[in-house]
Structures are given as C-alpha cells and as structure tokens.
Amino acid sequence: MPRFWVVGEANVDGSIAKISTEVATLARSLAADAGAPDDIAGIVVAADPARAARELAAFVPRVLAVADPTAEGHAWAVPTAESVAAIVNEDADGIALIGAGPDGRDVAGTLAALTGRGVLANAVGVRWDGRLVVEMSAFGGKLVTSSGFTGPGGIVTIRPNMVTAEPLGSAGEVVDHAPAAEPTLPRVIVRESVAEAGAAVPIEEARIIVSGGRGIGGPDGFELVRDLASELGGAVGATRAAVDSGWIPYSQQIGQTGKIVKPQLYLALGISGAIQHKVGMQTAETIIAVNRDPDAPISEFADLLVVGDLFEVGRALLVALRGRSG
Amino acid sequence: MHIVVLTKPVPDPAAAAERLGPDLRLDRAASPAVVNGNDEYALEAALKLMEAHGGEVTILTMAPPNATDTMRKALAMGATRGVLVTDPALAGSCVRSTDEVLAAALRELTYDLVFSGFDTSDGNAGVVGAAIAARLRLPYLSNAAKIEPDPEAGVVRVRRITATGYDLLEAPMPALVVCTQVLGEPRYPSLKGIMAARSKEIATRSVADLGLEGAVGGAVATTAVLDSQKPASRGATRVVRGTAEDGAREIVELLESRRIV
Question: Which residues of B103-142 are buried (b: 16+ CB within 10 A; e: fewer)?
C-alpha cells in the first residue's frame, strides 16, 4: 500500500477542491524526496465520487474512488474518515494528508481516533528529511516549530496556498474502492443545505484579499472594499471588529477566531493589525496597509503603509487601477 | 439539560509572552493564563441553554493544577461545577493523549450535550472535539452557528457553517457540538457570580483515576517538536505620506513590481 494518502475534498458541484490539488502536489514531492515517487494515492469519498476522483487523478498517479451512499444527506467527515481509516490502517506507516479547512479538521480528528495516529495540524511547510518534518506557526507567528511523528504513520493537515498545484504530465488512474465495511460511528443527518449569496470563492483560497477593519465605519464602507476586491480579482476579508459589528458575515473573518489566509496580496484598509488579526494574515506574500495611524501595529509587519484616510486613498487607488486596465 | 463544556487554559495571546521551554514544550509558567477564547463562546452558548431549559453546565479541563484559577472564571460566568484532569504525566501530551483523557473523563459524567470550542489559541489544531466524538461514538456536529436542543424529541439541531452557506444538521442526544464565535459574545462574570464561584466544586482526576496509567502523556506522545526557529523577517516597512493620489501610485507601483497586477 502507498505511504502517502491524499484525502480529496469535493466542492458542492462535485469538482475537486483547490486545497486538495495543492495537498496532492505537495504529497507528490514528499514521495519523490522519500525515494518512492509512486508511493502515493488519493482517496475521494462521496455518494458519487467520479468527478472529484477524476480531477484529483490529474495530480496523483492513482485515486481510490469510494462511493458511499451515506456521504449524501449526512455530514461528510465521519463517513469519509471511516473509509480512509480502513484504507490507511492496512499499513502502519501510512501518512494521511488533508486540507486544513473546517471539513479537513473534522476528518483529521475523526481519523485520529479511528487509527490512533498522531496529528500535526495547520502545517505551513512539510518536507522529507529521512522522516516527515512538519513546520507549524506557533505563538501568533513568533516561532516556527518543526515537528515529527514518533511512530511510523501520521495525519497532517495542510494550510491553503502552501504550494501551487501542478498537474502530472499524464493523468493518473481512478480505481473504484468499496467503503468501510460496517459504519461504526453515528451519521448526522443534513436536513437542509442552504447556499448564501456572496459566498463565492472561499476566502482561504483567494490569491488577493482586500480586507476592512473598524476604520471602515459601517456596512456602507464595505462597498469600497468590495469594489477594490472586484477590480483586483480578489475576495473581501474583515477583522473580528467589523464582523462583530454586523457589517460583514463571519465567513469573511480573518484572524485568531476566523480564517487563516496566505494570499499573494493582502490589502488592509483601516486595520490596526492587533495580534488576533495578525495571526490570520501575517504570512501573506505582500501586505499593504492604509491607515490614519502611522504607529498602528500593522506598521511593524506591512511591506507598505500608506498613512492617510482609507476612503480617499482607496478611491484614488480604484481610479488608478481602472486607469491601468482601461 | 446537562451540558459539559471543554475548556482549556491557554497563555494570554494579548500578553504575547509565550515561549518554549528547554524541552521544546510550551512553558506554561512564562505567560498569564486565560480561558481559551473559543471555549468562552461554547460556555456562553451552554449557559444560555441552561437558562432556557434548566439543568447544569459542567466545565471539563485537562491542565496543570493551577488551572483552577482560570476555571474559577468560567464558574463565575455561571457554570455549575468543574472537573480538572491533572497529572504530572500529562505534560507534553499530544492530540491523541488529550482526546483519550477527555473521552475517559466524559465516560464518568452524564450529559445531553458536550460542547467544544472551534480550536485553541495555543495549539490551533481544532481536531480534539472530532476525536472525542469518535472515541465515545457520539454524533458529531461541528462549526455551529446555532444550537437548538429539543429535549422532548431527544434531538439537537445545529446550523453548521459551510463554505457556501450553512447546513441544518440533526442528531439524537447525547451529541458533541463544536461551537463558533457566531453563537454570541461571552458574558462578563458578575460580582455575585464571582462570589458564588469560590464555593463551587472542582473535582480532580488523575491519569490513574481514569485507568489510563502508562497509556497517555508526554512519555507516549505520537508527535514531538524537533526544533524551532524565528520566522523569516518580512523586511522593513516602507511608509508613505502625502496625498491620496501619491499613496495610490505607490501601491500600484508595488503591485506592478511584484507582478500582482
């Protein structure tokens, strides 16, 4: 059995989630560095896994497609973890890699209990150095720790945007695989799935994020944030203060109690950069801040700080960007 | 309605004094401890349900002995009693030990619901709730934005936040629910609550009490920190003052030079 297992997550439309293609790309390089480039496979569990499995096979040489009827109409993580556990448990040294989003966490936790394997969560770097070495950000980003498993196998959850997904030269094969023989864990019924307007690209996957904080002043102020995000082809983010004020939904919150993001560009408008927010965005490649206060904490970790009124600078930026594209 | 809330003392993130000890474990003496922020949302949700349905709220903590200080704060908010699992052998515990210990402690309690926070600000893993649910074969309802127990029907309904909206979940009780901030701001302890908390019971359990001697703790951890480094420096911040147009031009130039636009 392969050493490295990529647990694939499907989007609502049945396509493979972007994070799973990144995890697959990363797992491929680990397998290569471990001297066993073919020692890797994907697993997709769904009522109808065909599309996600086929799409994941563009990134790994083999994908097990597990058709589990209980994965529909029930919370997905538990049936998924049961099938993954049955597969991974066939070898003691199997390592399961999963995206670090809310669904991936649920799978990882359930899988940990079912397999007794250790978990290293929210990896910001993973390498093979005679053993698996997992880098994680600790203490609000003050430290990066390197950790390993004390036993042969393990479970790792991977933060989005750690690597750029790269497909294989020629697509891998999809193999049908039976779900775990007997469900032992209770299924949770999904009575209804509701789609909310505006929840387009998950913010963790966005390449560019334009984010607003307390300085935005109200829900109307987010119009400018949205305009800039749309002009840059990015997503809208927010601080907890803006979310708690009801200006924007919780799904867009970045920071300690919200999402952890790693975009190419983080444009922070009216955000002071307190530690609770910083932990969610400090690994962005480029951080640009617009703030009235030149001494705000964000002045210590932004690449560029424009001191001024965020609405004036934001509108001028919108004009400048539109001038460029037009 | 009896709810057990998992709470953990963590180094106060606002104090920003966290550090690793020479054994590469978190030096818990280096920072003032507070109740993990996400656990306070879970506790608040439990207290509101207790007020609506009657019953009790027990807080369950695995931590060093001085955790009773932060547990008193949770009791001052209104929790009925506390259970502290504490044992020198638990220092350096991994995720597996943590969920095994908490699951064993829960086996000694009766409850309709177990609440956990979304994650902890020190470990951030956010996987212990799912692992406990699996060990105890409890229905697992995560990412909750709304929790509605129906004691007559014996079920709990949860609005679970998803990537595109939300799911309405339903499961029989007892069940484990992972709470989010959307459930509402935690209350401040009242003076009366603080006074009352002083005499509330905090029962303690050791690893031996739970029948887990040799099976859990730092000595049998499934993971280990190998080393730690300071993250790569981001470099100096360029600060621009002037007109809004100057600022906008600087931003565009940086975006162009880094090929972002």
Answer: bbbbeeeebbbbbbbbbbbbbbbbbbbbbbbbbbebbbbb
What confidence category does residue A94 fall into, taking pLDDT thresholds of 50, 70 and 90? very high
Beta bridge partners of B176: B114, B140
- Write out residues in chain B with pLDDT < 70, as ranges: none
Q: Which homologous superfamily is B2-220 in? A: HUPs (3.40.50.620)
8 Å CB contact of B13 and A276: yes
Q: What percent of chain A has pLDDT over 90?
A: 84
ipTM above 0.90, yes or no: yes
Q: What percent of chain A has pLDDT over 70?
A: 98
CATH 3.40.50.620 in chain A, residue ranges: 4-177
Residues 222-261, chain B: which have Cβ within 8 Å of A? Answer: 222-231, 234-235, 237-245, 247-252, 254-255, 258, 260-261
Residue of B nearest to A141 (CA): B231
- CB of B199 within 8 Å of a chain A CB? The answer is no
CB interface of A with B, residues 219-258, below 8 Å:
232, 240, 244, 250-251, 253, 256-258
Q: Where are the beta strands (DSSP E) in A243-314?
A: 265-269, 286-291, 304-307
Architecture of the CATH domain A203-325: 3-Layer(aba) Sandwich (3.40)
Instruction: Tell me how many residue pairs between chain A and chain B have CB atoms under 8 A apart.
Output: 298
Please state, in angstroms and rounded to a whole number, the distance separating the CA atoms of residues A86 and B227: 33
Residue B123 confidence (pLDDT):
85
Q: Inspect the interface and report whether the beta carbons of A148 and B96 lie closer than 8 Å.
A: no
CA nearest to A222, candidates A176, A194, A182, A253: A253
Does residue A310 surpass a pLDDT of 80?
A: yes
- Asked whether the predicted pLDDT for residue A182 surpasses 90, the reply is no
Q: Which of residues 19-38 of A touch B (CB under 8 A)?
A: none
- A130/B contact by beta carbon, under 8 A: no
Q: Is A132 helix (H, G, I), strand (E, B) or coil?
A: strand
Count other Cβ atoms within 10 Å, centred on residue B80: 16
Q: In this structure, are residues A31 and A122 in contact, taking their beta carbons and an 8 Å threshold?
A: no
Tell me, what DSSP letter sits at residue A92? T
Amino acid type, B164: T
Domain with CATH 3.40.50.1220 in chain A: 203-325
Question: Quick one: pLDDT at residue B13?
Answer: 84
- Mutation site for B-interface testing, chosen from A127, A158, A285, A313 by largest number of B Cβ within 10 Å: A313
Q: What is the CATH number assigned to the segment(s) A4-177?
A: 3.40.50.620
Chain B 108-127, residues with CB within 8 Å of chain A CB atoms: 118-119, 121-127
Q: Among partner residues B224, B229, B249, which is closest to A320 by beta-carbon distance? A: B249
| CA dist., res. B226 & res. B222, Å (int) | 13
